[in-house]
Amino acid sequence: MGNTASNVSVGKPEIGGAVFRAPLGTTLPTSPGTTLSSAFKCLGYISSDGVTNSQSRETSETTAWGGDVVLTPQTKKTDTYKMTLIESLNLEALKVAYGDSNVEGTSLETGITVKANSKELNHAVYVIDRIYNDGTKSRTVIPDGQPTAVDDINYKDNDPVGFPVTITAHPFESFDGDTHREYLKKTASGQSGQSGTSH
Question: Is 170 helix (H, G, I), strand (E, B) or coil?
Fold first, then answer.
């Protein structure tokens, strides 16, 4: 099969929310475009940099006498997602950046307390929904994701406060050890729509 221009696309966020989080062990969705259960909470707007998935593999080389490389076993494989959560007043975004137990309170009206400490950040299920040019919907399911880095949080006059987080996807037993899966399906209407819970 030759080149197909229609297979070239951009991945835009779904209307109503694109990144969702639920407690570890929540039933995992297995198709795109379906409504997520109420366990999934929207993390709000993501910065214009979008979401970056990095999959890196490291190998070691075994050389034979004479210098030929005769074996290159894989020694490490990582799967991470980087994004900046720019709804700094979103309770779910705060929990990702600081940890569930470090965000106390239920609403801004009654008051929120955020604690910064060395506690490990929570493992959770993450879902990332996208839609492509032709209406194809894509859903990434991360069954066990953990924030492993939170970069500098800047407070400036002309930029929104955001949480630049890195989510590391861990192998999941019931996923046959997969760190994430992506589901794609072209919709009949070819139009973007609400696929998850609302903000």
Answer: coil
Q: What is the pLDDT of residues 30-72, one digit of tens each?
A: 999 899 999 999 999 999 999 999 887 776 787 888 888 877 7
Residue 190 and residue 113 in contact, taking contact as beta carbons nearer than 8 Å:
no
How many CB atoms sit inside 10 A of residue 3's CB? Answer: 6
DSSP, res 32: S
In the chain, where the domains are located:
9-57+72-186
Contacts 24+ apart (CB under 8 A), 145-148: 145/81, 145/169, 145/170, 146/120, 146/121, 146/122, 146/170, 147/96, 147/97, 147/121, 147/122, 148/80, 148/121
**pTM, to two decimals:** 0.83
Residue 162, Cβ density class (10 Å: 0-12 exposed, 13-18 middle, ≥19 buried)? buried
Tell me if 128 sits within 8 A of 139, measured CB to CB.
Answer: yes
- The four Cα atoms 47, 193, 37, 29 give a dihedral, to 10 degrees, of -90
Q: Give, in order, the Cα–Cα distances in Å from 7 to each of 34, 73, 134.
A: 23, 34, 9
Residue 142 has which token pair?
């991360």
* Length of the chain, in residues: 199
Neighbouring C-beta atoms of residue 67, cutoff 10 Å: 6
Nearest Cα neighbor of 12 from 48, 55, 54, 53 is: 48
